[in-house]
Amino acid sequence: YGNDRYQESVELIEHALKLEPEHKSAYNDLGRSLLALGKMERAEEAFKKAIAIDPFSPYAYNNLGRVCLSERRFEEGEKWFLKQIEIDPLDPYAHKNLGEMLVQRAEFARALPVLEKAAKITPKDADLFVNLGMAQMQLAQPAEAQESFKRAVELSPTPSTWYTIASYLALITKNLEIAREYAESAVAMVSAQLRNTRLETVKTDDLRQVGFLAVVWDTLGWVHFKRGDLRAAEKYLKAAWQLSQEGDMADHLGQLYERLGKLDLAKEYYAFSTIDTFPPHEGRKHLAALIGEAKMEGYVDSVRTRPGELRTYTVPAATGEGTADFFVSLAPGPRVVETRFISGEPKLKGLSEALKQVKFVLDFPSESDTRVIRRGILSCSEPPTVKTIPPKTGMGPAAQMPPAAARGSSCVFVLLETDTIQPF
After folding, report:
1. Residue 31: what pLDDT?
2. Mean pLDDT by groups of 10 residues along the chain of 424 residues
3. Which of 75, 206, 240, 391 would give a disulfide with 395, using CB separation of 3.0 to 4.6 Å?
4. 224 in Cβ contact with 252 (< 8 Å)
């Protein structure tokens, strides 16, 4: 668990439970690993089993509340956090989680004293001070909020902290210069971390950073949008969507293009936002306002396959048969600086160089030498056998169909979405 090997953790704990079914802490540990894997239903069952074995469990009620918080079952989550606090009034986690939940529910007046108490119990928790600052900002305490955000950054000067504060300030359109500074810091640090990434040693965290780069690009773009710098906003918002194709990013681009008067682009990106796995409510509302509710479904259907098509590339002068997975590393240009065969048809391994000729679309917002790692599936099919055309009487030698290279590639490379990529 401590090394993020959650599936192995689950298997080992389940084995332990076969040997000792009433172990007092094992079900709580099992639930934590399942929670980390996103298996919410099984995690909830494990935490409830932990409580059944030990009604005074020092952790299970809080963790059960975390399941509810992640699923936005706020009332039930509050019950479990309060139960944990009843068992341990100085619990270092339950106060913080309860406060975060109340912030998400926009119950800022209730959240404030909970978070203030949590800050006394765990005064070195950066995330806690971020939520405290949010509550203070909403309760018209800007000076106190600024101190809380400053404290959060002091405790954890990381892209995650900078991004969270910047995105919140952009959301409420407050302190936009501070938001810009924090968002730029997040972009700079994530870019620097990716700059040193090499495909030979790529890890899961490196791939997560690629997705996070899209998020911080989007945040900086949105801050520029709120500041009225639409040219800078377009650079970052466009790059973010090209990299990640998330619904929120598409909605942000739609709003930008609508403000610029580019209504065809605006409606296209609003439509893209509605076909995301978790579509933002605002995207659908913006599209309806632009083209009318009656035309929405037909238009959305007409662009439904477009995002996938934009991730699909023909590989020049490449031939073969079968499929294979590759990593490609992109730098500003964009240019392919590295490729790596992962798995699949061994005969396609030699097409690594051909992948370097693909003209990928990614409008890097700056020329800083960051690296963006993408994973894709190369699919090739053999071209038809060359046919000999019998000569007509009195004509020269038999004619042949042009070679495969002259007729175009028989291979396509489809980039996977960033949130689905695993290293191997």
Report:
1. 96
2. 91 96 94 94 96 95 96 94 96 94 95 96 96 96 95 96 96 94 96 92 89 96 98 97 95 97 97 88 92 94 95 92 95 94 95 94 89 95 56 39 46 88 54
3. 391
4. no
Quickly count: other Cβ atoms within 10 Å of residue 97's Cβ: 25
pLDDT at 387: 46
| Rounded CA separation 336/140 (Å) | 49
CA 178 distance to own-chain centroid: 24
Instruction: Tell me the whole-structure pTM to 2 decimals.
Output: 0.83
Residues whose CB falls within 8 Å of the CB of residue 404, separated by 6 or more in sequence, listed in order? 319, 383, 410
Q: How many CA within 13 A on the CB side of residue 363?
A: 11
Q: What is the dihedral angle through the alpha carbons of 78, 79, 80, 82, rounded to the nearest 10 degrees?
A: 80
Q: How far apart are CA 415 and CA 315, in angstroms?
A: 12
Q: Is the dihedral of CA 165, 171, 172, 178 positive or negative?
A: positive
**Residue 143 in tokens:** 């000076």
pLDDT of residue 23: 93
- Tokens of residue 362, six digits: 């990614």
Q: What is the largest CA-CA distance in the chain?
A: 102
